[in-house]
Amino acid sequence: MSIIVTGASGQLGRLVIDQLLATVPAAEVTAVVRDPGKARDLAARGVALAVADYNSPESFDGLLRAGDRVLLISGNEFHRDRVAQHKVVVGTAAKAGVALLAYTSAPGNQTGLVTDDHRATEDAIVASGVPYSLLRNNLYHEMITMNIPAALEHGALVRAAGDGRLTSASRADYAAAAAAVLSGDGHEDTVYELSGDTAWSFAEFAAEVSRQAGRHVPYHAVSGEEYAAMLSAAGLPAPLPHVMAGIDASIAAGELAVATGDLSRLAGRPTTPVGDAIAAALAG
């Protein structure tokens, strides 16, 4: 068995490889990276490195082989054509005849700018004829806890999610599920709606931050336009302010509150409680 992980030097990719190495010999794992200098630690663990870039289709020539199991981690360069980036890997996988192409997608209920790219990539994967597994990841806890320092500094947690609830989980949870799909059997032509076990709201999140930090940090709900303008003023480059506001709109609409149990089943354990993620962020 040969397992290929793209985007392997990123936060999720590294965690997937960590999970794989718990059960799979390092010689069977290849990390696809843009900069091998950022993956020396993976090579030191016996993982093979391959240099390729979604923006350079020729860099994937000959990288994939028949029988490989491949994880395509979605690109995070929102200023580029992400669907075209992903199709580079999809086309290469189809030509090579890989055994499985797993893709980190977005929840099936989610709408908006972010998910348009994911749905188009899913369509390309299904149309390619390659055996696939669509890993529809809900939000990562870490995407929320990264706001804690600013909330503590300014005395409030500001989002545009209204009273909406979401079922986020940790990156490590999603990595465990991806590793289980890549190293296990029977995952061909599957769609997994991956989410945390328990839904929560930003009001509850702010209350838990207040409890753990020993400081009152209320949640202030604003409009999507106000939130995007605030992020732009803080220096977040386009189109990220509108992407973030769109995610909050999905939360407000209840699109990210679905709990299917798929994630805990694949990971083989309950998902990480958001309170644990808050504790880790405050400790870090």
Description:
The mean pLDDT is 97. With 284 residues, the protein is α/β, with parallel strands linked by helices. Helix 4 links the parallel strand 5 and strand 6. Helix 8 packs across helix 12 and helix 9 packs antiparallel against helix 10. 45% of the residues are buried. The chain has a domain of 173 residues: Rossmann fold, CATH 3.40.50. It has 12 helices and 11 strands.
What's a quick, concise take on this entry?
The protein has 284 residues and is of the alpha/beta class. Helices cover 43% and strands 15% of the residues.
* Number of β-strand runs: 11
Binned strand content: 15-25%
Strand order within the widest sheet? Answer: 3-2-1-4-5-6-9
Structural class assignment: alpha/beta
> What does the average pLDDT come to?
97
| CATH fold-level assignment of the domain at 3-138 and 171-194 and 259-271 | Rossmann fold
Shape type:
globular
Instruction: Count up the helices.
Output: 12
List keywords for this structure.
284 residues; two-stranded parallel sheet; alpha/beta; Rossmann fold; 7-stranded parallel beta sheet
